[in-house]
UniProtKB/TrEMBL annotation:
Any one Gene Ontology molecular-function term assigned to this protein's record: metal ion binding
Species this chain originates from: Streptomyces tateyamensis
UniProt-recorded name of the protein: Squalene cyclase C-terminal domain-containing protein
Family annotation (Gene3D superfamilies): 1.50.10.20
Segment forming the signal sequence: 1-27
Length: 408
């Protein structure tokens, strides 16, 4: 997976706009683009160099598999908990877990998704509590979170942190620094309804003194999930739902952000675009996936489904990667499929659950794949009839086995 090193403010912004990875790259100041590639540990999902996204992709993978009723290997979970630093935060990756972490290079994005993964898995309350304590301790004075402590906050990091707090059953409205909460920090980065029509309701990545806010699709897509009161995984939306209204000054920030996402998706053929200075704009699969998740959580499943359908038709190569499955990309697509009611076992012809499972250590248990036919009521009736026949022929024990077999 291509993940650039962030070595300065300009490169930082460029990396967050690339969309080549399912999440932002690490800003670990100790890393060097000339450093020898790190071999992925056996317990890690994905075979690419984990130096800049190990915790990020492991957390997304565990969250997605847990939501798909797959019980991951203990080694995979232990790897994630073993990456946690003594102060409760997570770095992007540390090869030597016995070495002390460098606080300045700990990663709020990795910490936020690790907390959400451990909440989804259950049974890791101490690590979750320590992660929440780290987030509280490293909140900026304006209520935001930076990728690495001590830097200006940004919308992506703040949105992920707010979602992690909610997942851990901590009201983000009660987590404040100098009287400012993360939700207030996000609102301060949101463009108003008096800006250009194609930017209204969007969020900027960061505020720059002396410059107007500029819409950032990826920042908006990730932060909108937090504004809508959600986190990972996103439960499936209802089959109906109204389209977002146009930007209204009196509307909630989440609704205006959803309006921007829906309008921008529609204007680009149901996907978001990546626009790098001097480069030809290209589809942004990561931002499109997060946009779909945020729209489901905001109560707009029909608009989310249109984006998910586009992803199913076009994002297969992104998830497959160039050197084996991209674990983070596959996990985000799997979460998107689940949230939009698509079949994750046949998403654009790909079994995302199988692809992600095979990208890491063998799971302890997996739920049986539900085919499209089995989901239909007629097929369900047929299966029930077969089950009754089996009950008559072989006794109740076999029927119970067929109907009760689940992943533990």
């Amino acid at each position: 997976m291509l993940t650039p090193v962030r070595t300065g403010a300009a490169l930082l912004t460029a990396t967050l706009l690339t969309g080549l990875a399912a999440g932002p790259a690490s800003a670990d100041a100790t890393a060097s683009p000339s450093a020898a590639p790190v071999t992925a540990p056996a317990a890690l999902y994905g075979k690419g160099d984990p130096a800049y996204d190990g915790v990020w992709r492991q957390s997304l993978a565990l969250t997605a598999l847990s939501a798909a009723k797959v019980t991951p290997a203990d080694a995979a979970v232990d790897w994630l908990t073993g990456q946690q630093c003594a102060d409760g935060g997570w770095p992007s990756f540390r090869a030597d877990r016995t070495a002390a972490c460098t606080p300045a290079t700990e990663d709020s994005n990795a910490t936020a998704v690790a907390v959400q993964a451990l909440v989804a898995l259950g049974g890791h309350q101490q690590q979750v509590d320590e992660g929440v304590a780290w987030l509280k301790a490293n909140q900026n004075a304006d209520g935001s979170w930076a990728y690495n402590p001590g830097n200006p906050g940004d919308a992506d990091s703040t949105g992920l942190a707010v979602s992690a707090l909610r997942a851990a059953k901590t009201d983000p409205g009660t987590v404040a620094k100098s009287g400012h909460t993360g939700l207030q920090a996000l609102a301060a980065l949101q463009l108003g309804c008096d800006t250009a029509a194609d930017q209204r309701g969007a969020l900027a990545y960061q505020a720059t003194a002396g410059s107007p806010l500029t819409a950032n699709p990826l920042a908006t897509a990730q932060a909108a999930l937090a504004l809508a009161g959600g986190g990972l995984p996103v439960p499936v939306g209802s089959a109906d739902g109204t389209a977002p209204k146009g930007c209204e000054a009196s509307a909630a920030p989440a609704e205006n952000a959803a309006g921007y996402l829906a309008a921008t998706l529609a204007a680009n053929g149901q996907h978001l675009m990546l626009a790098m200075p001097g480069a030809t704009p290209t589809p942004d699969y990561a931002a499109t996936s997060w946009a779909a998740l945020s729209l489901v959580r905001a109560g707009h499943p029909l608009q989310a489904k249109a984006a998910a359908d586009w992803l199913a038709a076009n994002a297969g190569s992104w998830a497959k990667g160039t050197n084996g499955p991209d674990a983070a990309a596959t996990a985000v697509l799997l979460l998107t499929a689940q949230a939009t009611g698509a079949d994750p076992h046949s998403f654009g012809g790909t079994d995302l659950v199988k692809q992600l499972t095979e990208a890491g250590p063998a799971p302890k248990a997996s739920a049986p794949a539900a085919t499209g036919a089995a989901k239909k009521s007629g097929s369900s009736s047929s299966l029930w009839t077969i089950g009754v026949g089996l009950l008559i022929g072989a006794g109740g024990g076999l029927l119970i086995s067929l109907n009760r077999k689940r992943a533990k």
